What does this fold into?
Amino acid sequence: MNVAIPLFGNWISPRFGFSQEIWILTIEDGKVTTQKTISMAGLALPRWFDQFASLRIDTLICGGIDRFCHHQLESLGISVIPEIAGDATEALSLFLNGKLEPGFRMCRGRRRGLRGGKGKFFGLPWVMD
It folds into this structure.
């Protein structure tokens, strides 16, 4: 399985299509076997879809994403986990453990460690359009 995570530094990019780089991971038997970061700087949105198709991405973990991009990715057979906010490594860990859901927010509070909660998400009617 190939997973893509748009990055903003070490964080998940808050908006799909505006990231300068994408973290690409190959996962086998629940473990990361290969990983690389590729530049997306200067690429128009249609080229993003071409890149994802050529890299055979199965799953995208991202921040905000508009309806058009969501549908385009799904038409390519890519599963989208949207509205994720926080550290990319921590999101990947949750994904590997089967605990990452759309709208998940990760934040650090005083002495509370990692907290997660579902943010306001578009909901099923939006996805079903």
In short: Residues 110-115, 118-129 have pLDDT under 50 and may be disordered. DSSP finds four helices and eight strands in the chain. Helices lie at 45-54, 67-75, 88-96, 124-128.
